[in-house]
Design a protein that fits this description.
Elements lengths: L20 E4 L10 H14 L6 H10 L1 H4 L15 H5 L8 H15 L6 H13 L7 H10 L3 E6 L3 H11 L5 E4 H4 L6 H11 L6 E5 L2 H10 L3 E5 L25 H4 L7 E3 L3 H7 L6
Parallel strand pairs: 1-2, 1-4, 2-3, 4-5, 5-6
Helix pairs in contact: 1-6, 2-5, 5-6, 6-8, 7-13
Length: about 290
Amino acid sequence: MTEPAVPPDTRAPFDPSSIRGVLFDAYGTLFEYGTPQFRTATGTILAEQGIETDFEAFYQSWVEAYSPSGVWGDESPNRELPYRDHSLNGPLPAWHSQWEIWRRQFAAALGAHSLEGDPDRAADVLRDELSVADPFEEAHETVERLDAHGLTLGLLSNADEDFLQRALSRARLRFSVIQTSESLRAYKPHRAVFLAACERLGTAPDETLYVGDSPIADVGGAHNAGLRTVWVRRGKDAQVPVSSTKPDPAEGATDVYGDMMSRLPNPDLTVGTLLGILDAFDPESAI
């Protein structure tokens, strides 16, 4: 199965002075919760439920079950087909919560290994963990300085209200607008999610910068909806040159994202930490 190629980007070059609002993703962008934390949580769940199995094999099954457990099921965007028109622009599918995605995900992984367990309790553990996730050390400074620059700030996350609101309150992070997949009854990367958030923020899509760590949900989804985009690439991944975001196979490019990114639009900015965003708005104070 193939999808149409990403249309050429005919927009004007990115101009930070045209930006009036900034929307942030939550987990992996503002909050330090990603693959290492999910791995640890999975180990905790298995230990708590007394399940003995090959951890790496189980974790891989858990990861592979995530997309099929989502609202688009087996038609979800993935590394092979990251820019699927129906998940960007098609009719919105029936909604179910992030908690329910996790429950289905664990049920599938348990079934794949013929194991007995409690998927509901597994989803509860993840909900509790994300409720107390810590923000990245530069999150507060970035939000405060962008606010001082006169930008309207918002949050748009594929998350349930309960655990995200608790995490925001605990971290004392405040935004003019907070929208979740639960409040909107829809998930990124669909354009409706981004357009609804822009409407709430009071900024046109091309006046809005979306900041996220997911090439598919954040960069691809926001670009498709007409927003400008920042891709946050943390850790070792941040050391890969930006020029290899769309590698030339003939030159043997080995960027871990390369094959997938060749099927996605390029971000307007790529940064290693949130502080990198500040340089675009105030180059004199580069950090």
